[in-house]
Write a structure and sequence with these properties.
Elements (H helix, E strand, L loop, with lengths): L1 H18 L4 E2 L6 E2 L5 H15 L5 H14 L17 H4 L1 H4 L9 H7 L10 H14 L10 E2 L20 H10 L4 H7 L7 E2 L9 E2 L10 H5 L18 E2 L10 E2 H8 L4 H7 L3 H15 L10 E2 L63
Antiparallel strand pairs: 1-2, 3-8, 4-5, 6-7
This protein binds protoporphyrin IX containing FE and 2-acetamido-2-deoxy-beta-D-glucopyranose (2 copies).
The site of one 2-acetamido-2-deoxy-beta-D-glucopyranose has 4 residues, from loops.
Length: about 375
């Protein structure tokens, strides 16, 4: 019996070492990696989680995700590399130029947060931006684990101004801009799952952290539902960038609807795919994973890159909740431009929804840790 057990133990030990055979020990003495080039990203993930994101899906995580888009979209098939080389870190390396684009209002927070890490970790600016975004997203319950490929060379010049879509742009202009960077209208819808963890700091006068849905700290499908709800108010009426928003039913609770999100939800090219995302957690996860994998390498030669996705933390699991009409709203408000049957969803009971301002449910922005 003792003999048998030790054979079993040996066999197990052999198996375990076989599983680890290809892993290398990292210089930090803490991590192992499939490829030595990934070691620095294991260390960077720990640093970001501890010192920047507090391992939560808060403001700094949201801003890091937004930055991935604003860097990568600086690319044009039509105009060529002189106007930008995509996910190349130019947004950090040439911030004083790129911040002159009004579409980049507010991204300076994420740049200020991340740029100092360039002198602490041996990574390029483009890798830093895309990796930080992937780590950030892992903190949001329900998010997919994003792919991360390492090896973007540093940008040599800034992206041209005017390449980043704006919320007041006509929908056909937005589709054309995205196509010019390699994205179909439905891929854009998948990317816009990002707006489930998003708030505006710049569009409404004297207001910060204006949420795009009622659950801004959860990677759920509420944004796809709430963008479809007819409202009678903007927030506050005609102040700030008025053309950036359309009326929404939760204005009194502090929510806004982006004109662009609404227009995309109504376009014949995207209305059915938008509606398909409502209450379809699996679809937003898969769609966002695949579209972000593409976004993260815009303009890059992936044959020269190394897959370091293993350094991206495993995301927090989804909250076990179906999509619901927020209290005070309901199916009578739906603005549907697609003929497919709409899912039957419950309405949250009670008075109008209170939208939390911090990930822990606190309703005072000043109390949020990150
Ligand atoms: C049609 C394309 C898009 C438009 C017009 C658009 C517009 C905007 C605007 C106006 C804001 C608010 C910024 C502020 O005032 O602070 C915002 C926030 C955000 N966007 Fe987009 N966006 C688009 C696509 C995307 C994509 C593809 C991503 C994916 C990475 C993304 C991720 C975010 C995130 C995470 C935020 C929240 C930032 C925060 O809470 O601090 N957006 N977007
Ligand atoms: C990329 O640029 C940053 C910031 O200037 C620098 O710290 C880093 O060494 C550069 N990396 C490469 C590979 O040139
Ligand atoms: C919008 O509708 C709500 C609910 O019917 C109502 O309480 C509110 O006063 C309306 N706001 C405006 C500006 O009409």
């Amino acid at each position: 019996m003792v003999f048998k057990l030790s054979i079993g133990f040996l066999a197990l030990a052999t198996l375990a070492s076989a599983a680890n055979f290809r892993r290398v020990a990292c210089p930090d003495g803490v991590h192992t990696a499939t490829n030595e080039a990934c070691c620095v990203f294991h260390e960077l993930a720990d640093f970001l989680q501890t010192n920047k994101f507090d391992s939560t899906c808060g403001e700094d995580a949201h801003e890091a995700l937004r930055l991935t888009f604003h860097d990568a979209i600086g690319f044009s098939f039509e105009q060529g590399p002189s106007v930008g080389t995509g996910a190349d870190g130019s947004v950090i390396l040439f911030e004083s130029t790129e911040l002159m684009d009004p579409a980049n209002n507010g991204i300076d927070d994420a740049i200020d947060n991340l740029k100092p890490l360039l002198s602490m970790f041996d990574v390029t600016a483009g890798d830093l931006v895309q990796f930080a975004g992937a780590v950030a997203v892992s903190n949001c319950p329900g998010a997919p684990q994003l792919q991360f490929m390492a090896g973007r060379p540093n940008a040599t010049h800034p992206a041209a101004l005017g390449l980043v879509p704006k919320p007041e742009d006509p929908v056909d202009m937005i589709f054309a801009r995205m196509e010019d960077a390699g994205f179909s209208p439905t891929e854009l819808v998948s990317l816009l799952a990002s707006h489930t963890i998003a708030r505006s700091d710049t569009l409404i006068d004297n207001r910060q952290a204006v949420p795009f849905d009622s659950t801004p700290f959860t990677f759920d499908t509420q944004v796809f539902l709430e963008v479809l709800l007819r409202g009678n108010e903007t927030l506050p009426p005609a102040s700030g960038e008025a053309a950036a928003q359309v009326p929404n039913p939760l204005a009194a609770q502090g929510e806004m609807r982006l004109q662009s999100d609404f227009a995309i939800s109504q376009s014949p090219q995207t209305a059915c795919f938008w509606q398909f995302m409502v209450n379809n957690q699996q679809a937003i996860q898969q769609g966002f994973h695949d579209a972000m994998a593409k976004l993260a390498v815009v303009g890059q030669d992936t044959s020269k890159m190394i897959d370091c996705s293993e350094a991206v933390p495993v995301p927090v699991p989804a909250v076990a909740k179906q999509a619901t009409f927020p209290a005070g709203t309901g199916p009578e408000l739906l603005q549907l431009a697609c003929d497919s049957p709409f899912p039957s969803l419950a309405t949250d009971p009670g008075q109008a929804t209170t939208i939390p301002e911090c990930p822990d449910g606190d309703t005072n922005l000043n109390d949020c840790p990150s």
